[in-house]
Design goal:
This protein has 404 residues and is α+β, with helices and mostly antiparallel strands. The chain folds into 3 domains: 8-138, Butyryl-Coa Dehydrogenase, subunit A, domain 1 (Orthogonal Bundle); 144-251, Butyryl-CoA Dehydrogenase, subunit A, domain 2, CATH 2.40.110; 253-398, Butyryl-CoA Dehydrogenase, subunit A, domain 3. Helix content is 51%, strand content 14%. The protein has helices at residues 8-11, 31-58, 66-72, 89-102, 104-124, 127-138, 157-160, 252-287, 299-327, 333-357, 369-381, 386-398; strands spanning 144-147, 164-168, 171-182, 189-196, 202-208, 214-218, 230-241, 289-290, 293-294. The strands form 2 sheets. Strands 1, 2, 3, 4, 5, 6 and 7 form a 7-stranded mixed β-sheet that branches. The chain has a two-stranded antiparallel sheet with strand order 8-9. The N and C termini lie far apart (48 Å). It binds flavin-adenine dinucleotide (FAD). Flavin-adenine dinucleotide binds at residues 112, 146-149, 154-155, 180-182, 225, 230, 378, 381-383, 385, 387-388, 403-404. Residues 145-238 form the Acyl-CoA oxidase/dehydrogenase middle domain. Belongs to the acyl-CoA dehydrogenase family.
């Protein structure tokens, strides 16, 4: 770690470890993983930060950054399938945090493509399906989406999923509707989770964009993660060949296996969102003067800054330990849920304090913090709300399910 003075942030040398990694978690990484993290940091700082507010305002996706992002080699970072990087969970988490530290929408885009969509194929696909789709997805030549949530059912999806799949010769016929599906307006492959009419089990299907009967309509007027292209999907007699049914997805248990891993990604994204807001807030308080002094010199402002740093550091510590458990093959659902619930609550608190120390400027996009405040609201609710993740942990520690 470099000499970690707060002043370093004003220079924000992308090749250096930022002061906001206060307890030096990056030092836990092997050299090659730190090198990767540094490249992600440089890319996000140089290529994304300067253009992201404009895209956020227009609710457009910066397709122009995809070739550079592909060169980083971070899509499906933890997966060891064909063409995948096969790196550890800790570096995967720190990379997810790094992306969201600069922009939570871009972190979410990669969470959907490299985490949820590639993860579905990695964990639920046959060897042949992995060979077919994972290498071009890892190279980001094919972009993925993950269609689980429906207009009428979100938290209760394991029980209430209504999209149907009916076997018809060597194909399946899908009918139903999905909502909130990130990347779906332009993704090449959309993983659709549907209930088999025969055995009542939830199964995954890879539906190629342009397949007749699948219509993806962009959701407009979001107040959070505006850069992420979320879609409502109408599925009307969509014919999918059996070779596109994820061969190892036999029930919702398979879907849950994917979510356990990606929920950790979201915990890391939340820590990143909080960290980005904190860094912008600290920089601002050193530049803004009131009563003839930088506002950073006031005790009450320092109190908020230190509480923000403590939140970021505590979330990072919790997530880092869970990622180590994941690497050891010991991550349980309740571990990921605790990390997601804790990190998102602390994120929401932190971005609020960051906005507070910016005064009125906190609601202007040009100072970035306002974007983090808005984006935090979506991260707080997706991939399991605080309540749902709390119930998962509560069930684990009491042995009593309190879902209904
Ligand atoms: C920006 C964004 C991106 C998303 N991307 C995707 C995606 O790519 N793919 C995808 O499939 N989905 C995606 N989602 C959907 C997301 O996972 C759901 O929004 C989430 O699961 C919550 O479901 P819901 O919004 O329907 O809320 P609801 O389930 O309607 O919940 C409403 C409220 O009721 C509470 N509640 C529900 N049940 C209980 C209970 N038993 N006890 C106590 N409280 C309860 C909830 O915690 C919440 O506070 C995305 C959502 C957003 C906002």
């Amino acid at each position: 770690m470099t000499d970690a003075r707060p002043d370093d942030h004003d220079l924000l040398d992308p090749d250096e470890t930022p002061f906001s990694d206060f307890l030096g978690f990056e030092l836990l990484l092997e050299e090659q993983d730190r090198e990767l993290l540094g490249r992600v940091r440089a890319f996000m700082t140089r290529e994304v930060e300067p253009i992201i507010n404009d895209h956020w305002t227009r609710a457009s996706f910066p397709h122009e950054i995809l070739p550079g992002m592909a060169e980083l080699g971070i899509a499906g970072l933890t997966y060891d399938g064909p063409g995948c990087p096969g790196r550890g969970a800790l570096v995967n988490g720190l990379v997810a945090m790094e992306m969201s530290r600069v922009d939570p929408s871009i972190g979410t885009f990669m969470g959907v493509h490299g985490g949820l969509a590639m993860g579905s194929i990695m964990l639920c696909g046959s060897d042949e399906q992995r060979e077919r789709w994972l290498p071009p997805m890892a190279r980001m030549e094919l972009i993925g989406a993950f269609g689980l949530t429906e207009p009428d059912v979100g938290s209760a999806i394991s029980q209430g999923l209504a999209t149907s799949a009916r076997r018809d010769g060597d194909a399946w016929i899908l009918n139903g509707a999905k909502k909130w599906i990130g990347n779906a307006t332009f993704a090449d492959l959309v993983v659709i989770w549907a209930r088999d009419e025969d055995d009542g089990q939830v199964k995954g299907f890879v539906v190629e964009q342009g397949t007749e009967g699948m219509v993806c309509t962009k959701q407009e007027d979001k107040i959070a993660l505006r850069v992420v292209q979320n879609a409502e999907i109408a599925l009307t007699d969509v014919r999918v060949p059996d070779e596109n049914r994820l061969q190892r997805s036999e029930s919702f248990r398979s879907t849950a296996d994917v979510l356990r891993v990606t929920r950790m990604d979201v915990a890391w994204q939340a820590a990143g969102c909080a960290r980005g807001a904190f860094e912008h807030a600290l920089r601002y308080t050193k530049q803004r003067e009131q009563f003839g002094r930088p506002i950073a010199s006031f005790q009450m402002v320092q109190d908020l800054l230190v509480k923000m740093l403590a939140n970021v550091t505590a979330s990072t510590a919790m997530n880092a330990r869970a990622s180590q458990l994941q690497d050891a093959g010991r991550l349980r659902d309740e571990h990921a849920s605790l990390c997601k619930a804790h990190s998102t609550v602390r994120m929401r608190e932190t971005v609020g304090w960051a906005r507070e120390v910016l005064g009125g400027n906190g609601i202007l996009l040009e100072h970035h913090v306002g974007r983090f405040v808005a984006d935090a609201e979506a991260i707080y609710s997706y991939e399991g709300t605080r309540e749902i993740n709390t119930l998962i942990v509560g069930r684990a520690i009491t042995g009593e399910s309190a879902f209904v």
